[in-house]
Batch of 2 targets.
Target 1
Amino acid sequence: MTESDIQGTPGSALSGSQPDLSVTGRTQHHRLRDQGRTDRADLRAVLSAGFIAHLGVIVDGAPMVVPTSYGFDEDHLYLHGSVASRSLQTEPAAQACVTITLVDGLVLARSVFEHAVNYRSAMIYGVPRLVTDPDEKLRGLRSLSEHLAPGQWDYARQPSRKELAATSLLALALDEASVKIRTGPPDDADSPDAALGLWAGELPLISVWGQPLPDPALPPGIAVPPHITTQAGTPVFES
Ligand SMILES: Cc1cc2nc3c(=O)[nH]c(=O)nc-3n(C[C@H](O)[C@H](O)[C@H](O)COP(=O)(O)OP(=O)(O)OC[C@H]3O[C@@H](n4cnc5c(N)ncnc54)[C@H](O)[C@@H]3O)c2cc1C
């Protein structure tokens, strides 16, 4: 893609007063357009609700798509890993695409053709930046930790200088992104297949955090911290 493919002006933040998601040559929805969203608040909602991303990069001339956790702030998505990770060592100016996917259920139709998935997903495009500023690096790593397990960053030991040096943090601007959301029943209620007398509907998928399992190596007397106990039984993915 060339710069001239990019139409529209990218926004720079996720707050309510920000412009809609820009439509570029890459983020323009073509198929299933009714599921496309351009409200920046929908991007924030998908980022908040999910916690696993897939980072797509070209490594040694071939695509590599890596599942990874993420954090985010108003302007950036943060991805981290070992300095040895090949997926985090993108060439300067190399494009990446990150997707976040939440599966909310199966959509079971009268015909096999009309089966679908209820989902929320986001795709973010750009050139990841290696974060070298120490303050931003700590902020980004904290956002990652807090997004996965709120309260754990302050509870656990903070990273040492050596650990920080062994960790790469990439920042991807939330400027060029697309969101798609599907909800509701199958689309064939008003088709001839409705006369087949077959059951059709939705099978929701609900993931819930289980009870914490203490490390068998724990000495007696160390209680599960409240920020972990309160997670148990709650939905993994915000609705
Ligand atoms: C869990 C899950 C399962 C799915 N299963 C299927 C399936 O089995 N078959 C199928 O055809 N489709 C499926 N989809 C939808 C699929 O992701 C695409 O949206 C759809 O296939 C259209 O693809 P396209 O390349 O023609 O999109 P286009 O409309 O050509 O894509 C144009 C641009 O729209 C944006 N875009 C496209 N899809 C998405 C998305 N999902 N999220 C955010 N932005 C997007 C991207 O920026 C993309 O560059 C599934 C989606 C999810 C999340």
Target 2
Amino acid sequence: MLPQRNTLTLVCCLALASGCAQHHVPPPAAPASTGTKARIRVTDLSKHGPQYRDVVKYLRWFADTDLCAECSHFFGGKERLKKYIDDLLKYDLLAVGRATDLKNPSLRISAFVNTGGVMVPAGFMAMFIDLDGVFFNETLDICGYRGGSDAARKLLLGHELAHALERPGIVPDLDDLNGCIANTRLVLANCLSTFISAHSSQQNR
Ligand SMILES: [Zn+2]
């Protein structure tokens, strides 16, 4: 179901279906359906190293940069966004690694927040970024932005942060590629000037 926003048509992401397999897992507190067991397997988990630090750098960008007013509003205010990111890092709840959806192994998972249904100890992480996903992988794209690029990284994290902060219009998109794309488009529609102006100024350097 599309979010109730009519600004989405401003941005075309239709070329991107293959690049938008981010993944949202219901929070641990959500009522478990009967017979629920872990369906996401993660390997190569790490909270150290250059790739982990790359993600931290971009999360800090979200926390510290001057987001455009529309983008800030979309995230429920700069302070709330900053608090989430500060706490995520302070309590060591970010991890990178490689995720496999056991139910649908062909699905490429780029990231998820909350970790119900994931084979890690409770409380180990609240945000996961996949080492082969669009944050790092130049063969993928997200809404037309090449994987690994500045804009793609911001867009991916923006998508996950919008889930984490339960922003209006963001729909659960586990098993829902159209929902995933709609979510990404909603983030882009609200934050395009933030992402692109920062992107351009960096490119022009
Ligand atoms: Zn999502």
